[in-house]
Design goal:
The chain is of the alpha/beta class. It has 19 helices and 22 strands.
Length: 562
């Protein structure tokens, strides 16, 4: 935020960008934007936030992806009409971010239709122009079919890879089990696999199931083993029922179903080509199993694909987790917590997720301290401009604490006791017990509900305590719609690349965690660059070099080769 931005202006800019993201589930980073009209102080705060999140203000001659309207409808209408003249398929999102009054006259563009809750389509202008108002609440109707259509249009990379699989006929006769957060983007992946020729079976944990989306997949003919109301025993039964269909390939998130297959149904492993795992926390136990000689199938480390971990973990998880936290806090009663513009935040862990969380918190105007046990990563955080301190020390003055490690008991009992009253604790990692709530309970702490998905942790003899969000669950999944669509487009393109690897070479791969083919990363990145309007440089031609000739080891630095 600009140094002169007052707290109210900061809060307005933060709320506007978060409401845009909530309504659209779209990414801010890497998008071109333009701001129309408005008070210079407002536009400066909004510009600072958008660029701090990784967006780029478009040059005068460039088309834009997002048109932020802050002034009057008279200022906005001609700019919208001009920007709407664009190639087919190039999406324009017009954001009415008027601070006090609407900045866009929706009636000026003719009849509108609902593209998804909170997003209006303007068909008389273009099939690719949409309106979002940051001052209006979204419709309550879950509109799952519309949400799937919206997600699909913003997943061009996955669509292209799936089309290659379809055209090559590789998936015919293949059964694929998808065990991921069941929301619109995962549903699109499942349908793309089905359309490419695979038989697809879906499982999801209860707290990661959107029942309306599950019903859409069932109506499309897919078998779905998921319910948001399932108990733990019922979830296990659902997962085993998915495994009972004998999938040839498993696509997993957290490796829970891969590990369940090894423990409960090892008889299925010889018939499987392998699996793909897309999370850091899921790969850790699989690597341990492989080291012990217990892994019975090859597992492609999709998480380690550069087009996954450098974007999903940093930009996607960073945006979606921090926004989910602040959206939850907006719904809590005044005085429940101490988080506000210009406050302090602690990020536990400085891997790719921690980098992204710290980046977003900083863009929103919070002062960030990083707590990292790896001295190299701690040094990296210091060079990135953050304060660095041990966790129990860092949290003593924190307004917000976010765990970004994916390691159990990161926010341990000592850290919980050190947090001031009203500090907020949330998880951007993704494993059970990342916040040591069981240890806190054993120490006598009481969990007092203070609002939706929020509990105050009160230790014996204390008048107050920190507020833990959503039981320490991975906040962007359990309390929001997951990562932005464009980010999951990259991750799912890598998943589809892993599927190709297993189809073509599964029998040759070691029963281990295997790296993804570098060609998958390159193809995914080139397709994504095109989708973001930034053409890739042509591949560098490989210099001819006879295979039987050794490279010249002589140096020319001192004259003739020696």
């Amino acid at each position: 935020m600009p140094p002169g931005a007052d707290p109210e202006t900061r809060a307005w800019a933060s709320a506007a960008v978060r409401r845009f993201a909530s309504a659209t589930n779209l990414l801010v980073a890497a998008r071109r934007f333009r701001i129309v009209g408005g008070d210079p102080r407002d536009t400066a705060a909004l510009r600072s936030l958008l660029t701090g999140l990784g967006a780029r203000e478009a040059l005068a001659h460039e088309p834009v992806d997002q048109l932020w309207c802050v002034g009057s409808p008279e200022e906005s209408t001609p700019v919208v009409e001009r920007e709407a003249d664009r190639p087919r398929g190039a999406t324009l999102v017009v954001v009415d971010a008027g601070r006090h009054l609407p900045a866009v006259d929706e009636d000026a563009f003719g009849p509108v239709t609902i593209a998804r809750p909170g997003v209006l389509r303007v068909p008389t202008t273009s099939d690719d122009v949409f309106l979002v108002s940051t001052g209006r609440e979204s419709e309550d109707d879950p509109a799952a079919e519309a949400r799937l259509r919206w997600a699909r249009r913003s997943m061009p990379v996955s669509r292209a890879v799936a089309a290659e699989l379809r055209d090559g006929g590789l998936l015919r006769g293949t059964r694929i089990g998808v065990a991921m957060f069941l929301e619109p983007k995962t549903a699109v992946l499942s349908l793309l696999l089905r359309d490419a020729g695979a038989e697809v079976v879906v499982y999801a944990h209860a707290d990661e199931t959107d029942d309306a989306v599950a019903d859409v997949l069932r109506a499309a003919g897919l078998t779905v083993h998921a319910s948001s109301t399932a108990s733990l025993p019922e979830q296990k039964a659902l997962a085993l029922a998915m495994l009972e269909t004998r999938p040839h390939i498993l696509l997993d998130d957290g490796s829970h179903v891969i590990r369940l297959a090894h423990r409960e149904r090892p008889d299925l492993l010889p018939t499987m080509l392998g699996a793909a795992e897309e999370t850091t926390s899921g790969l850790r136990p699989l690597r341990t199993m492989a080291a012990r000689g217990e892994l019975g199938i090859p597992v492609v480390a999709v998480n380690d694909a550069r087009t996954k971990t450098l974007f999903d973990n940093r930009y996607g998880t960073g945006q979606s987790t921090v926004f989910a936290v602040l959206d939850l806090l907006d719904r809590l009663p005044s005085g429940t917590h101490r988080v506000g513009p210009g406050g302090t935040a602690v990020v536990a862990g400085f891997g790719h997720v921690g980098e992204g969380v710290a980046l977003v918190l900083t863009a929103l105007g919070l002062r960030v301290t990083v707590a990292e046990t790896d001295p190299v990563r701690a040094l990296q955080a210091l060079f990135a401009g953050y304060a660095v301190a041990p966790l129990a020390e860092a949290v003593q003055d924190a307004d917000l604490v976010m765990s970004a490690t994916g390691v159990a008991d990161t926010i341990d009992l000592r850290a919980l006791r050190s947090c001031p009253d009203g500090a907020v604790i949330a998880v951007a990692g993704g494993v059970d017990h990342e916040v040591a709530l069981d240890d806190a309970g054993a120490a006598g702490a009481e969990r007092v509900v203070v609002g939706p998905k929020a509990e105050r942790l009160v230790f014996p003899g204390a008048d107050g305590g920190p507020v833990v969000l959503d039981g320490g669950g991975c906040i962007n999944i359990t309390a929001a719609e997951g990562n932005p669509i464009e980010i999951m487009d990259l991750s799912f393109a890598a998943q589809l690349g892993a599927v190709r690897m297993l189809l073509e070479r599964g029998d040759e791969l070691d029963r281990a965690v295997v790296p993804i083919d570098p060609a998958v990363d390159e193809a995914t990145a080139r397709a994504a660059l095109a989708a973001f309007g930034a053409p890739a440089a042509p591949p560098r031609p490989v210099a001819e070099h006879p295979a039987d000739r050794e490279p010249d080891v002589r140096t020319r630095r001192f004259g003739d080769p020696t």
